[in-house]
Amino acid sequence: xxxGGVAWxxxxxxxxxxxxxxxxxxxxxxxxxxxxxxxxxxxxxIDAGRQFRFRGVPWTVLLGRPALALASDTARVGMALARAxxxxxxxxxxxxxxxxxxxxxxxxxxxxxxxxxxxxxxxxNSYLLRILDERDEIRLHRLAERKPSPNRxxxx
Length: 156
Known about the structure:
With 156 residues, this protein is an alpha+beta fold. The protein has helices at residues 2-19, 24-47, 59-87, 107-122; strands spanning 94-99, 126-132, 137-142.
């Protein structure tokens, strides 16, 4: 419940900052929308069928690799799109396979799969299509060619 109260206060504060003014109507709207969002957040946590555990996540890898790949992938995609403009629309990309240690059904592995899905899809050159459970790999769509990551646990 403390988490719900903190979420309510934070969401109300964010609403007021984004509203750009502190009038009576904005404060009422912020309190109501903050309360609704906080209640929904608590309800989702209570009803969640899957638990996530974020302890032990290598945050430097998770945040660092996609940030570093952002510049190189933007250049790769830009070159592919420039070739498409100059030569005609022959750039379609490809679905590629990436080795991925799926792990078990515990909260830690569920969190890792979710974070890998998000991290892989942050860069403009890749989008996670599917986690192939039976093969311990993920299927990605890439517009421009890129070598697969050797890291099976965090293939970002």
